[in-house]
């Protein structure tokens, strides 16, 4: 009979190994194989726990084609640890780690672990403001951001000009998120309501550099109404800045990003890039030339899609 248990022993040993060293998708695949569960059964167990994940997504996760990142997906990963009889936090820990190859592909980027941690923190801050991570009752028709990089090469601040349309009655606010550079101090940042809004509650989280603020309209929009408003965030609390990235959860309107540099600190090179998700490699890289008198670069996306879009720069 010892030979009958050998395949199970081998599978268990392999699982123990990859749970210690990863990567996430290999550990997930090994755990599913060790328990002998088809993906349809895994999905069924998740559904019984109130977590909705498609078989296709599970397949992508264990192939490494995609990585869980949304709050519902992270809930699924925690449920998978229970379903697959794994140690608590074992898959979440691997998910939060960035492998060396990913770091080599995007050395200036915020790590995947930082994105995961910030995402979880953001959900908590939004909950404090009684706000769900959604569109907040409005669709974006246009968004123009101006970023200022100071003489110390720091992210000095940004200004956002929004044009939105309400798709339900009663919308009277917008929740804005600012994610500072590593080492920033959100508690020392200030938010300025510049046009057609005023500042409401503000929440910050020091370790992840996240600041969340309400912008109150002082009017209640009806479905179909449009609203223009403008606000700014004074930052300047971190060290050398190397990029600015904006994430989009769904298809939206036009987005324009302008980065302006202090004349005393001009970068050697600038480029734009896109990224399907924080775990994905960057693509669509395109060099950008600094404008002469204004020392700025910009990008314009006529219609944004889900994912990340940004501008990066290099210093001599």
Specify the helix fraction band.
25-40%
Number of helices: 8
- Order of strands, main sheet, comes to 4-7-2-1-9-12
| Model regions low in confidence, pLDDT < 50 over at least 5 residues | 1-10, 98-108
Overall body shape: globular
CATH architecture descriptor name of the largest domain? Sandwich
Look up the CATH topology of the largest domain.
Immunoglobulin-like
The major β-sheet equals: 6 strands, mixed
Structure description:
The chain has helices at about 1-20, 25-35, 40-50, 55-65, 70-85, 90-95, 100-105, 110-130, and strands at about 140-150, 155-165, 170-180, 190-195, 200-205, 210-220, 225-235, 245-250, 255-260, 270-275, 280-290, 295-300, 305-315. The chain is of the alpha+beta class and about 325 residues long. It has two domains: about 1-95, no CATH class; about 110-315, Immunoglobulin-like (Sandwich), CATH 2.60.40. Strands 4-7-2-1-9-12 form a six-stranded mixed sheet, with no helix packed on it. Strand 5 (about 200-205) and strand 6 (about 210-220) form a beta hairpin. Helix 1 (about 1-20) runs antiparallel to helix 2. It comes from Streptomyces ambofaciens. This is XRE family transcriptional regulator.
């Amino acid at each position: 009979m010892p030979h009958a248990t050998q395949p199970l022993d081998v599978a268990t040993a392999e699982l123990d190994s990859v749970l210690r060293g990863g990567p996430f998708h290999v550990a997930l695949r090994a755990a599913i194989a060790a328990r002998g569960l088809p993906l349809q059964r895994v999905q069924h167990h998740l559904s019984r726990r109130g977590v909705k994940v498609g078989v296709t997504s599970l397949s992508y996760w264990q192939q490494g084609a995609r990585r869980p990142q949304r709050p519902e997906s992270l809930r699924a990963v925690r449920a998978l640890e229970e379903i697959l009889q794994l140690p608590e936090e074992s898959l979440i820990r691997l998910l939060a780690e960035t492998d060396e190859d990913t770091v080599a592909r995007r050395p200036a980027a915020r790590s995947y672990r930082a994105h995961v941690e910030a995402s979880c923190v953001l959900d908590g801050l939004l909950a404090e403001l009684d706000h769900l991570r959604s569109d907040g009752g409005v669709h974006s028709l246009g968004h123009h951001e101006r970023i200022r990089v100071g003489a110390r090469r720091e992210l000095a601040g940004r200004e956002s000009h929004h044009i939105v349309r309400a798709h339900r009655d009663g919308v009277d606010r917008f929740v804005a998120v600012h994610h500072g550079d590593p080492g920033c101090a959100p508690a020392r940042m200030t938010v300025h309501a510049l046009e057609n809004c005023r500042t409401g509650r503000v929440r910050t989280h020091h370790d992840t550099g996240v600041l969340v603020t309400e912008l109150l309209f002082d009017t209640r929009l009806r479905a179909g109404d449009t609203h223009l408003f403008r606000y700014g965030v004074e930052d300047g609390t971190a060290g050398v800045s190397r990029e600015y990235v904006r994430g989009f959860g769904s298809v939206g309107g036009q987005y324009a990003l302008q980065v302006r540099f202090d004349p005393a600190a001009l970068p050697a090179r600038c480029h734009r890039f896109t990224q399907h998700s924080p775990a994905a490699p960057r693509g669509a890289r395109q060099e950008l030339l600094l404008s002469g008198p204004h020392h700025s670069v910009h990008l314009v996306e006529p219609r944004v899609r889900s994912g990340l879009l940004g501008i990066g720069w290099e210093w001599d």
